[in-house]
Each structure stands twice: as C-alpha cells, then as structure tokens.
Design goal:
five-stranded antiparallel sheet, alpha+beta, six-stranded antiparallel sheet, 166 residues, Jelly Rolls
Length: 166
Amino acid sequence: MLRKWSQTLAFPVLFLVAAALMAQPAEAAKAKSPQKGSAKNFVVSPAADLKFEPLAGAPPGPTLAKLWGDPTKGAYGAIEKFPAGFSAPLHTHSADHKIVIISGTWIHGEEGKPEVRLGAGSYLFQPANQKHTTACDAASECVFFIESNRKFDLKVVGEKKAPAKK
C-alpha cells in the first residue's frame, strides 16, 4: 500500500518540480539586466570603428572610446589610451575602476609602496578614493579596457579648490 501511495504522489511532485524549474528562466528574463540599457542584440565594434576622444576631466593626453554609458554622467565601460610616457600625479577617483591592460605597460603606484608594472593581459582594481599614481611606460602607448561604477573624476592629492569669487 505504501509503495502504491508513493508512486501515485511521485508523478504530481515531479510535475510540480519540473514546472518550477522551467519557470526560472522566464523569471530570470524578467529580472533587470546587471548593465542598465543592455542591448537585446549583439553589439559589434571592430577596433577600426572605435572613435577615440579626449577624456573629460582628465589631464591632457588620455583618450577613450565609449562602449556603453557616459563617463561624464555615470557608470561606463570604454577602451582608453594613454600616450607613451603619460604620467598623473598622486590622485583619487570617487568611483571603483576595473581595468584590463590590452597593450603597453601601465605603471601603478600606491602611496608608500613600490610601483607595479602591468603588461598586456594584466588586471587592476582601483577602489574609490584610494590614493595612487598612474603612468604609461615611454616605450609605447597604453591601451586598456576600463569599467567604472560612477562618472569619471580625478582629484589630485593636495590640490586645493580655487576660492569662490565674490
């Protein structure tokens, strides 16, 4: 009797489990994409088609090609370039930056620590508000992918704001 009862319940239970599992992808599709405004189709950007422009708010030299978002307004992803020999003094950013070096040698410095040289394929995470220097080796330009969770800014350490005009 127990065996017949368990066989009778097995089908409805398996049916409910299967229905629940099949419903998960539909619910996942309704969930918001982790990147706001993600495309519903492939996005293809050959390197030759990328449009590099000066990075607003940065010292002269860096250029970037936006992949998504807008670095003057909020979160973004881009391919960025530093000219060979570029150097930025000790500074901070108010956003977290995730960086992957594509070519060249990026030179990262943290206050009180030796510089680290990062070649192609290297990864760097720069936490918001952490003091650091950034440079590109003089041998060639640095090309890298950057993802930021906020708009771009750069505050040089020790730089004072200009007094307000009266």
